[in-house]
Design brief:
It contains 17 helices and 5 strands. It is an alpha+beta fold. The chain folds into 2 domains: 115 residues, PAS domain (Beta-Lactamase, 2-Layer Sandwich); 224 residues, Orthogonal Bundle (Hypothetical protein af1432). A hairpin with a 5-residue loop joins β1 and β2. The radius of gyration is 21 Å and the shape is elongated.
């Protein structure tokens, strides 16, 4: 019998449902599938709505079950890392479908351990590889990159319990700043689109931060803040490791710089490395302004949101200390656009993001 889906507002809900990868949210103890997207249902040869409330074990080859349980156990022994396993699903007609599963821990649901499963088939992989090797359908390749960045960001945001709008807004802010740099000519529309997509992974390292710190209501203690600061190095390390295992590692170069250095400060008082001035990667300097502006405008457990004027004043007065003064000048020229983006509803942000993606394909 199909279980009724639990009411919640997961971050990246639209991206979760539309992702070309199979994605499912699963109770780690019972194996119950809380919900699955259409791609996951398609891989299983079933409608995604009929899967909710059933168990992933019901669709798995018996010979693969022990390996699956061992994989989940290894995930919880190393919660800061994902776990990858090749396995087989049983189709409704009795045939089997080989898949590669990537697992990542999510915040507990109703007090029970929960994880995210992402599934892809060899056919999916072969089709993508063929397109890359032939250098054809570049628009499709960019959309594939977009989907991959989004899938990784969903893992981060599910773990972080922030708002999905934060991803879309900061991505839009980064694109806006890059497109209006006085020296942006060397960056093609395609490169700017890739950088904006990379911005979604700025907090991917928070996957490795313990719940008692990451999900704490209110301000962190000094010791807790030291732990929180490690999300920059964790994020940079995770993306570097990803780059080693793909022939297109340069795709993640900007994401690595953003994840590791977006909390560096112009005057050298930031973290993790205390970089000064232009030693901070340009993409990270831009991400810093986008991230801080959105944080100032957003509600947090320890503060009410600032109005646009107050957020703008704080950034203006932080030029030369926190922020690159030349980039602050660009921000101030664009402040009305920032204000407009900050007030967009999620539906409009998704539409804005679609338009931005289309623009990035014009190369």
């Amino acid at each position: 019998m199909q279980a009724k889906r639990k009411n919640h507002d997961p971050v990246g809900e639209t991206a979760f449902r539309a992702a070309p990868f199979g994605m499912a949210i699963i109770d780690s103890t019972s194996g119950e599938i809380h919900e699955a997207n259409a791609a996951y249902g398609s891989i299983l040869g079933r409608d995604s709505d009929t899967i909710a409330g059933t168990r992933w074990m019901d669709y798995t080859c018996l010979d693969d079950l022990k390996g699956d349980f061992d994989c989940i156990a290894s995930l919880y022994r190393n919660p800061e890392r994902s776990a990858v396993r090749d396995k087989r699903y049983v189709m409704p007609d009795g045939t089997v479908c080989p898949v590669r599963i990537t697992l990542a821990i999510l915040p507990p649901r109703d007090g029970r351990p929960t994880h995210l499963a992402m599934a892809t088939t060899q056919a999916n992989f072969d089709q993508s590889l063929l397109a890359i090797e032939r250098r054809e359908f570049r628009a499709d390749l960019l959309k594939l990159q977009e989907s991959f960045f989004t899938a990784m960001a969903i893992v981060s945001e599910f773990r972080n319990r922030e708002t999905g709008e934060h991803l879309l807004r900061t991505k839009a802010f980064v694109r806006l700043l890059f497109e209006n740099l006085p020296y942006a000519t060397p960056f093609s529309a395609r490169a700017i689109g890739l950088i904006a997509n990379s911005a979604m992974l700025h907090d991917i390292g928070k996957i490795g931060i313990p719940d008692n710190v990451l999900l704490k209501p209110g301000r962190l203690t000094p010791d807790e803040f030291e732990i929180m600061k490690t999300h920059t190095t964790l994020g940079g390390d995770a993306i570097r490791e990803t780059r080693k295992h793909t022939s297109h590692g340069s795709t993640f170069m900007f994401a690595e710089e953003i994840a590791e250095s977006h909390h560096e400060r112009w005057d050298g008082t930031g973290y993790p490395r205390g970089l000064v001035g232009n030693d901070i990667p340009l993409v990270a300097r831009i991400m810093s302004i986008a991230d801080v502006y959105d944080a100032l405008r957003s509600t947090r457990s320890y503060k009410e949101p600032f109005c646009h004027e107050e957020a703008t004043r704080i950034i203006r007065e932080s030029a030369g200390t926190h922020f690159d003064p030349e980039l602050v000048k660009v921000f101030l020229r664009l402040e009305k656009s920032f204000e407009k983006i900050a007030t967009l509803e999620k539906k409009s942000l998704n539409e804005f993001d679609t338009i931005s993606l289309q623009d990035s394909l014009l190369f």
